[in-house]
Amino acid sequence: METTLLLEKEAVENLLPQKFPFVMVDKMYSFTETSLVSGFKIKNDNIFFDNDTFLEAGLIEHMAQSVALHTGYQFFLKNEIAPTGYIGSIKEIVIKRLPKINDTIQSTVTILQEFAGITLVDIVTTLNNEEIANGQMKTVLAK
């Protein structure tokens, strides 16, 4: 588990287009031009929380928002406003285990390709250093 915290909840929320109660990322542990590690502590007021479990839709949304955080932070570093992005496709998402209340998950986003506002990423989500989900997404920036 990453220990260095670059951004906390408020700063992260300012970089995402989503707002409460739809925010599924509350930490950024690391950032490079081609990667990011995000985190999220699951609370019982989460809209994707049911019977002590964080649902599949929440896990996938966390993964997508981790990609959005990478884009938002890139634009922030250039002192520019990030355009809205959309999920273009989701490929081969594998969910091995669902987290529970008060768990903190982390996602590592790795940029595989980026061209003309279209980004292909690989995402691995862990809980206590155990991989619980992985997959690929393609995101598209609005023009």
Write the topology of this structure.
Blueprint (H helix, E strand, L loop, with lengths): L8 H7 L11 E6 L2 E7 L7 E2 L2 E2 L1 H22 L7 E11 L8 E12 L2 E10 L2 E12 L2
Antiparallel strand pairs: 1-2, 2-6, 3-4, 5-8, 6-7, 7-8
What does this structure look like?
With 143 residues, the protein is an alpha+beta fold. It has one domain (9-141): Hotdog Thioesterase (Thiol Ester Dehydrase, Chain A). It contains two helices and eight strands; from the N terminus they run αββββαββββ. The strands form two sheets. Strands 1-2-6-7-8-5 form a six-stranded antiparallel sheet, with helices on one face. Strands 3-4 form a two-stranded antiparallel sheet. A hairpin with a 2-residue loop joins strand 6 and strand 7 (118-127). The longest helix has 22 residues, at 56-77. The radius of gyration is 14 Å and the shape is globular. The mean pLDDT is 92.
Q: Which terms would index this structure?
A:
FabZ; alpha+beta; HotDog_dom_sf; 20% helix; ApeP-like_dehydratase; Thiol Ester Dehydrase, Chain A; six-stranded antiparallel β-sheet; 2 helices; 143 residues; two-stranded antiparallel ribbon
Question: Summed up, what is this model?
Answer:
This protein is α+β, with helices and mostly antiparallel strands and 143 residues long.
Intertermini distance: 36 Å
In the CATH hierarchy, the third-tier topology is known as Thiol Ester Dehydrase, Chain A
The strand line-up of the biggest sheet is 1-2-6-7-8-5
Domain module count: 1
CATH-scheme architecture? Roll
Question: How would you describe the shape?
Answer: globular
The fraction of residues assigned to DSSP E strands is 35-45%
Helicity level: 10-25%
Which spans have pLDDT < 50 for at least 5 consecutive residues?
A: none
**Name of the CATH homologous superfamily:** Hotdog Thioesterase
Total helices: the number is 2
Average residue-wise pLDDT: 92
| The first-level CATH class name | Alpha Beta
Instruction: Please tell me how large the radius of gyration is.
Output: 14 Å
Order of helices and strands: HEEEEHEEEE
Number of strands: 8
Sheet/helix structural class: alpha+beta
Question: Main sheet, how many strands, which sense, barrel?
Answer: 6 strands, antiparallel
